[in-house]
What we know:
Structural class: mainly beta
Helix content: under 10%
CATH class of the domain at 44-136: Mainly Beta
CATH topology of the domain at 44-136: Jelly Rolls
Amino acid sequence: xxxxxxxxxxxxxxxxxxxxxxxxxxxxxxxxxxxxxxxxxxxxxxxxxxxxxxxxxxxxxxxxxxxxxxxxxxxxxxxxxxxxxxxxxxxxxxxxxxxxxxxxxxxxxxxxxxxxxxxxxxxxxxxxxxxxxxxxxxxxx
Length: 141
């Protein structure tokens, strides 16, 4: 693992990525730049995947603000206290997730995975998973 602290520029190689401890069912989050990888003090940047036809569990990121860049795939993001609102995003799109907003990611493809870069204004991968019945309802187009 790269040294922690202000040692100058650091590289975290793709081969060094490991699953971050903060996970949500259905998603894999890999920390690239974080407290545990490079000693980041105000930033978490990770690579996140969602397999075909998978929907994540409902969750929020506490007081952390998040930005998502969609690399591959098409997702529906359900959000709100009852997951009753939604937006869709695809490759090249950016999604802003304000602090404490309950949300769920849904892969709209049955054959292709989703890949995205996620950035948070906190050095840890803050994840608060929630048990909401709305998160398991069958998705309608």
